[in-house]
Design a protein that fits this description.
This protein is of the alpha/beta class. The chain has a single domain, classed as Rossmann fold (3-Layer(aba) Sandwich). Helix content is 30%, strand content 18%. The chain has seven helices and ten strands. A seven-stranded parallel β-sheet has the order 1-10-9-6-2-3-5, with helices on both faces. A three-stranded antiparallel β-sheet has the order 4-8-7, covered by helices on one side. Helix 7 links the parallel strand 9 and strand 10. Helix 1 crosses helix 2. The radius of gyration is 17 Å and the shape is globular. It binds 2-phosphoglycolic acid (PGA). 2-phosphoglycolic acid (PGA) binds next to loops.
């Protein structure tokens, strides 16, 4: 695990932008897994700026959303589909993008087909993600089996509370989601995790120097062969000797 410490959120985003552009420029046909949330917002805006300056093209890039809520339509501004279009996809020349269909009649089949699509696209080259305060990655909550592929999850109370800030009322936060599994993420050729802020410090400490355990999903990444964490000084504040 490669840990890159930076001073603040802006430096984290800039460093991540440089890494993503480097991969897109140096490898053809990149397949990215991409997250939602506050953490990657500036990364997306910097990628859009770089595209508008004609310094990068996404014409050979395919993206897969890490996750999506169950039960809300892609037109709903709270959906991850909507988020991704607004923050990134509608601004760039992306070749193709895939987002799990949270309205599918048969959710199990939707999950299996998502895995098929990842395989058909040649697998994920770079999986980008944030981390939850409880150590989740994607929507893989504590206790998720490390062997899990894309699946339906019940969101934890902690995650529902954390995400309530995006909804008019906490009751409106969906209780279920579709997420890539831990194994889907571990199968990516490279992983990039971003974290900023003191509220992530405990999860980062456990993910980096704690026991590898299903109780802390991000700890699985200690076993990934090509994984980088870019973390700002607040998120790194409990990593004393690193
Ligand atoms: P955040 O969410 O980027 O909004 O903090 C990260 C996550 O829950 O994975």
């Amino acid at each position: 695990m490669n840990i890159i410490r930076v001073s603040d959120y802006t430096s984290m985003s800039t460093k991540a932008r440089d890494m993503v552009i480097d991969r897109i420029s140096n490898f053809s046909d990149m397949v990215l897994a991409i997250p939602t949330g506050n953490t990657p917002e500036m990364l997306y805006s910097l990628l859009v700026d770089t595209y508008k300056e004609e310094k990068v093209s996404f014409k050979d890039v395919v993206t897969f959303n890490l996750d999506e809520y169950v039960g809300i339509s892609p037109d709903n501004p709270q959906s991850y589909s909507y988020y991704m279009k607004e923050h990134l996809l509608k601004h760039i020349d992306i070749r193709r993008n895939y987002i799990p269909d949270g309205l599918a009649d048969d959710l199990e089949r939707e999950c299996a087909e998502y895995e098929d699509k990842i395989r058909e696209e040649g697998g994920i080259d770079l999986a980008i993600m944030g981390i939850g305060r409880n150590g989740h990655i994607g929507f893989n909550e504590p206790g998720t089996n490390f062997e899990s592929l894309t699946h339906v999850v019940e969101l934890s109370e902690d995650t529902i509370k954390a995400n309530a800030r995006f909804f008019p009322k906490e009751e409106e936060v969906p209780r279920r989601a579709i997420t890539m599994g831990i194994k889907t993420i571990m199968n990516a050729r490279e992983v990039l995790l971003l974290a900023s802020g003191k509220e992530k410090a405990e999860a980062i400490k456990k993910a980096v120097i704690g026991e590898v355990t299903e109780e802390l999903p991000a700890s699985a990444l200690q076993r990934h062969k090509h994984c980088t964490f870019i973390i700002d000084s607040d998120a790194a504040s409990l990593l004393k000797n690193w």
